[in-house]
TrEMBL record:
<protein>
    <submittedName>
        <fullName>Uncharacterized protein</fullName>
    </submittedName>
</protein>
<dbReference type="InterPro" id="IPR032675">
    <property type="entry name" value="LRR_dom_sf"/>
</dbReference>
């Protein structure tokens, strides 16, 4: 057994019962970890026994559990018994696990009754895969109030954002932070604003060198149609771009239409009753005069 795994298992076996916050950030050499057969190590079975915590009858007071690690030894046989003993857990960051995702989601749903925040906001591949987050969102019957998600690939973005609007979380989500998004499209983002009635904070972080985000015209049309979060939204961060390329044959008409859209956007933003923080990040495809038009008096 590698030293990080051995130490990590020791830590979990001797957690103070009164502990309320625990963060573990461990990264090992993936080659060594992948080529070490933990199943042949007798100490591994001793410390990863399914009754690791249950045997002592210990109930932990953990409110926040952050597990950011790529260790293969950290899997369901240690994670699930721990979660069963954390009835007061509120915020969770999960590592990437390869199996038993259904059992994991069932334990979270049945044993962690106060869980409301899933934090997967990390730049790396050590956290849950898109498929596992998708399964968790579908199986978590109470819905999450806060989601902090970081994209790892373009298909990840399509996968998760479409799931958000079709599960229980659509009616419970209050804070949604999306980071490192590279290929997100208008209908994904605007779908969140249109369908989430309790949304207070929506922050969309997109890589600055990518021309993806919310289309300017689509944003204006969406505001005209109405957002379910209109009366609750307090913080809004968006990246906005314009699909019209430089050298458009109808540039004069396009400028006129854009000016009208800019006026509608300005008026619409002013009518959001609880909005206190607005961060609109314009794509390099938009001209300086457009920026001034939107925010002029």
């Amino acid at each position: 057994m590698s030293l990080p795994c051995f130490v990590l298992l020791k830590v979990f076996r001797h957690l103070p019962q009164q502990l309320q916050e625990l963060e573990i950030h461990v990264n090992s050499d993936p080659y060594q970890d992948d080529h070490h057969d933990h199943q042949d190590d007798p100490q591994y079975h001793i410390h990863c026994d399914a009754d690791l915590f249950k045997s002592s009858g210990t109930v932990f007071n953990l409110r926040r559990l952050i597990l950011n690690t790529n260790l293969n030894c950290f899997h369901h046989r240690m994670l699930i018994p721990l979660l069963r003993q954390c009835p007061d857990l509120e915020e969770l960051m999960l590592p990437r696990i390869k199996e038993h995702i259904i059992e994991l989601t069932q334990v979270l749903d049945s044993h962690c009754k106060r869980l409301h925040t899933l934090n997967q906001e990390d730049y790396g591949a050590s956290l849950m895969s898109a498929g596992h987050i998708d399964a968790l969102l579908r199986a978590f019957s109470r819905g999450f109030r806060q989601l902090h998600l970081c994209s790892h690939s373009w298909d990840w973005e399509y996968y998760i954002l479409e799931t958000l609007t079709t599960t229980a979380t659509v009616n419970t989500i209050e804070v949604l932070r999306l980071s490192n998004y590279q290929r997100v499209e208008s209908y994904h983002i605007l779908g969140i604003l249109r369908h989430c009635p309790r949304l207070r904070v929506f922050q969309m972080g997109v890589e600055s060198d990518h021309h993806f985000g919310v289309d300017f015209s689509d944003l204006v049309v969406s505001m005209d149609e109405g957002w379910k979060c209109w009366d609750t939204l307090e913080v809004l961060t968006l990246k906005v771009h314009n699909k019209v390329a430089i050298g458009h044959l109808y540039l004069k008409e396009w400028k006129h239409r854009t000016a009208l859209d800019a006026r509608k956007l300005r008026l619409g933003l002013r009518t959001l009753p609880k909005l206190v923080t607005l961060d609109i990040r314009w794509s390099v495809m938009m001209y300086e005069w457009e920026f001034e038009t939107v925010f002029s008096p």
